[in-house]
Amino acid sequence: MKNFLICLLAILLCLGCFTGCKPASNPGQAETPKPIARTVSVDLSGTVNLGFPAFDNGLIEFLKQTDLGKDNCTVSPLSYKAALTLAALGAEGETQAQLLNALGCRSVEELKTWYARVLAGVDDFDAYFDSEYIEDRGKAAYQVVNSVWANESLPGEFQQSYIRDAADTCRAEVRSAPGNELAPKINEWVNEKTRGLIPKLLQDASDFSSVLVNALYLKAGWEGSFIEIGKDTFAARSGQQTEKTYMQQTDDFRYYRDEKTQLVAVPLQGGITMLFVLGDETDLTRKLAQAESKPVEVTVPMFDVETTLSQGELCDYLIALGCDRMFTDQAEFGPMFTEQLFVGDIVQKAKVHIDEEGLEAAAATAMALCGCAMPEEEPEPEIFRADRPFSFYIVNGFEAPELLFWGQIVN
């Protein structure tokens, strides 16, 4: 696969040694860092049910209400939730209760069951290629991996019980490095796990007592063949007519249409599906359930979309869900670490590219913690032409899909 989709996701949760979102001037001093209270300006009370897990639904609607919703953007809910899982395993009391509630889990055991399904999806992807004759098998991959890092230059260490739990639940590796080597070592690990798609995740980690890292890598071709059909116009939300390069495929797809929504599900190898949605995205579960397999001529643009979430959007989303204690000096991460910790910031970067060959995706999430079949005549195909604003969902599985990436192309 010479062309690809790259999703680069870096979520940075800075805990403990930050005053707001900035590191203390001298983290070696005994002075306790003070969190800065955050104000949430986006209301989730009107969030609609998109049919995927509630956390994913809310995240999408939340981002649509921010300035990011005015332009092309993308996000990976799975990598975000994987990072939060590592945090929840090391929390207790009200901090853990709020995290579990935000993630839509009633208990730690239920969270562990969800993550086991995520890993099962990875294993099923590998099993698909083991049981089918697929050309270029070595180019297809899907993995979700984790590591936890300790800063040897600062006080504190991971609790042994947390190390065992993170390994058993998330298959997390345990690493350590001096403060000035922590970011380079983490970047090296991420670069390896994402096959060079994310060469640098962190600028500096010397003020972090520990860092929890998730890396997600996905590469798969379409089950059918798209062909490039050249350039044509795209009616952007801004009102301008832009030019994009389109690709097209006609085959039997799951398809739904009503007066407000047009939806098509295009399968990729390994059990991955990409949904393209025109119009109203509400009640997708019902609409997808009513979708019928029929001939559809699918025309969509090849695109690149890149997003950086660094203005507190992901922190504010958690707070809007009632998960605020982890951002204060009352945060309870004792089961994880021997020093007091709290969350200071969350940053995410994502980049997506698709073409006629398929997709390739990588995501890296760092949570930084600091102290404190002659055929019958076929009917005319339905037409799905994404030449105006549309959304996309990349999911693993179909009956109970796990949302890997969501995005919108509006300009």
Question: Could you explain the architecture of this structure?
Answer:
With 411 residues, the protein is α+β, with helices and mostly antiparallel strands. Strands 4, 8, 9, 10, 11, 12, 17, 18 and 19 form a 9-stranded mixed β-sheet that branches. The longest helix is centred in the N-terminal third of the chain and has 24 residues, at 108-131. The protein has 2 domains: 12-19 and 36-45 and 72-221 and 304-369, 2-Layer Sandwich (Antithrombin, Chain I, domain 2); 227-303 and 382-409, Roll (Alpha-1-antitrypsin, domain 1), CATH 2.30.39.10. The chain has helices at residues 54-65, 77-89, 93-103, 108-131, 160-170, 179-193, 284-290, 313-320, and strands at residues 12-15, 18-19, 22-23, 73-75, 141-151, 173-177, 210-221, 227-235, 241-257, 261-267, 272-279, 292-301, 303-309, 343-345, 348-355, 358-369, 382-385, 390-396, 402-409. Helix 2 (77-89) runs antiparallel to helix 3 (93-103), helix 2 (77-89) packs across helix 4 and helix 2 (77-89) packs antiparallel against helix 5. The two termini are 27 Å apart. The chain has 8 helices and 19 strands. Helix content is 25%, strand content 34%.
